[in-house]
Amino acid sequence: MAVEEKMGGSNGEDGGKDWFPLGMRVLAVDDDPICLKVLENLLRKCQYHVTTTNQAITALKMLRENRNKYDLVISDVNMPDMDGFKLLELVGLEMDLPVIMLSAHSDTKLVMKGITHGACDYLLKPVRIEELKNIWQHVVRRKKTDSKDQIKAPNQDKARAGNGEFGQTSTGSSDQKVNKKRKDQSEDEEEEGEDNGHENDDPSTQKKPRVVWSVELHRKFVAAVNQLGLDKAVPKKILDLMNVEGLTRENVASHLQKYRLYLKRLSSVATQQANMAAALGSKDPSYLRMSSLDGFGDFRTLTGPGRLSSASLSSYQPAGMFGRLNSSAALSLRGISSGVIQQGHSQTLNNSINGLGKIQPAVLPANQNQNGTLFQGIPTSIELNQLSQNKSTNHFGEFNRVNDPNVFGVATNFFDARVPGGSSSNSLSTASGNPLLLQANTQQTHTSGSFGNQSSHGVASLNQESFDMGVRGSSNFLDHGRCSENWQGAVQLSSFPSSSLSTSEAFNHEQLPPNNLQENLSWTSSHVSNSPIDLSSSMANSARLDDSRGDMQCQVGLNNNVIQNMGYTAKQQWGDRRHDYNGNLNNSFSRLDSLISASGAMMDQSNAVTSKRTDVSLFSQLSGDAPYVVQHPEGEKSAFDAKLRSNEDYLFEQTKPQSGFSQNNFESLEDIMSSMIKQGQNNETALMDGEFGFDAYPLGSCI
Amino acid sequence: MLGLGADRLRADMNRLLAFLFHQGILDEQYLQLQQLQDESSPNFVSEVVNIYFHESEKLLRNLRSLLMDREFSDYKKMGIHLNQFMGSSSSIGAKRVRNVCVAFRAASEQNNRAGCLRALELLEHEYCFLKNKLHELFQIEQQRVLAAGVRYPMQN
Fold this sequence. Notes:
- The complex is a heterodimer.
- Chain A is mainly alpha-helical.
- In chain A, 67% of the residues lie in helices and 3% in strands.
- A 5-stranded parallel beta sheet of chain A has the order 2-1-3-4-5, sandwiched between helices.
- The radius of gyration of chain A is 35 Å and the shape is globular.
- Residues 1-16, 153-183, 185-206, 282-667 and 680-703 of chain A have low confidence and may be disordered.
- By secondary structure, chain B is mostly helical.
- Chain B contains 6 helices and no strands.
- In chain B, α1 packs antiparallel against α6, α3 packs antiparallel against α6 (113-155) and α5 (95-109) packs antiparallel against α6.
- The mean pLDDT of chain B is 88.
- Chains A and B meet through α2, α26, α27, α28 and α33 of A and α1, α2, α3, α4 and α6 of B.
């Protein structure tokens, strides 16, 4: 309530905009009071300001009164006074407010109808709070397109150029050269901004077909850059070297910029990897190797989930690697992988684990990635190789420049042999480089941290490129970097959530067969989703935890199951018998009816017994036969029969007693049915009453 | 001693809830309802559920009277009732009831009167069961609140 008032206080024309999306004003329309109430509370929980009405006409009136009082309308599709689609149309026409449709029915035709009538969204009942948390986007989107339309006409180019520039500064602050280049280019040519890769600034009018950076294309690109030398690589020259049709200089330029950013990230990551190795002070080559590979594996996260083809992972054989890991290495590995898991990408876990295996040469060419992202994963270990070979330790800035050309050159090579070789030399470098590395430790993470920040900030504008994932991946590394500083050993790992630990443990102990991506993903996701399953199973388990009452509970469960089965089988039976006895529909359903009500009554009774609430009145009303209350069900069937018997009595007492129906001793369903058939056809309404009488009964008995 | 009762009642309630979830009678939506209950709306769940009972019985009566009618032909009207029943049932997390509604709707779309009748019976059956269980749940909850509340004065 307090929140609501506060939101109300900030209401008005620009009400709540400062805290947007908090305080967004929603009008909810639904004739179903339950849905309306639940929706209202859900929206309040999202901290929106909610007004509700159960009539479409009222809603229209309120909207017409003051359109500015609301930001968004949510409306049910099926309403008695007005069709939801009609309301949608009217609101769209008159008030131009975003409208979200709501329905229990997910029929494609209806959804289509909603869209054609202009709905922003179509939600299905039951509405979940997660969905409602996002609905504010429709308001923003509408506002944005409105404002865009306004500025569209006068200064299109200017806006685009401005966008392009702005995009530049935000991303390129760490890369002055690139920045300058872009500026030069923009000054050189008029058109810019389309394919800068800043998709969120995309002007809606002109849309060039997006260039897909395939593996082949990227390879050419990298080859061209290598040939020129990274420092000297100019888009024009690269374009010429690549000699690809249909590729524009702008495409190359933007790709080059991304590539440069990527390399920067690589170098920072590599240093982080080295840091971790140094921090652990481990001279174990296998560990280093693992870490380097792990870096590689983590770089797979940079490539983004879902972009790795199955072929790329199929030839990994991590088993060999695992065998060689000593315990500390294994632990740290686990730490890394669980850290990766922590980020919430099942694929990243997959990737990092796979990255631990030997990398087959065949893998990379088979890679069908767009953007040639897989290539980007390679240089890590190579860079570490470079590190060791150069025997330079504290040259991170230098590292970038010196190694970059090599990196590019190597990027096209595959390094099955390199990896072990690299590892052995890595150990050497560790020995020599340790002190220096250690010294540079904090400095490292600093720069990398700052760089990471910059890149993530800048790249935020690159929406749909793989580098997005890369940035997030690099943020993974930031975590790792921090972790590495604190690492003393396995102890730190206790801070990781146990679920992720167990998952990675599972990975460690198990020999990962050369699966394809699909399998891994599914397995991973099944593991990652372990917790919810565990929860439910533990819940179920707790249901079965027993004391004496638990027994009763189980019994009830059993009884209920019995009833369920009985209900269904009985239906079938009666479906058949219907033909046998008489084709009278009413008769059959009356049997069903009574039996179902009977079983319902029985369940109620068993519940009563279960909870040891000897509500005798309850039972006696049902059975008219008190002794049954105390009777403990000896065997299910007999209890069931006994109770059923008593229920039958009750029901038939309530209904018009037909043709002297006597209390038979039913021993089976057949008998019950046959007796019921004798009832004749006048039972319908009577039974109905009886049934509803039964229904009404619990109302009285409970609360 | 009363405190012990409150704990035991809570255990009962949890067990009953677990059972209901396990049997598929309730689903996560019910949990969401529980989460919506807080200081500002302390009886939210029971309020919503009571409205649900009220509305559902109305709907069930309507459905039955429609189907019992000898000259029944208005499947569309039945569909409307059914739609509302389905919406409200799913909104409180009554999974089994909702599933029966789906089957019911399928039968009604095929103008299959017999199927509709069968579905209606099943629906009534499921609804009854749900109602009993929820009543039980609320009872335990009430008792638990009482038991927990009485404890404190005794400590003084």
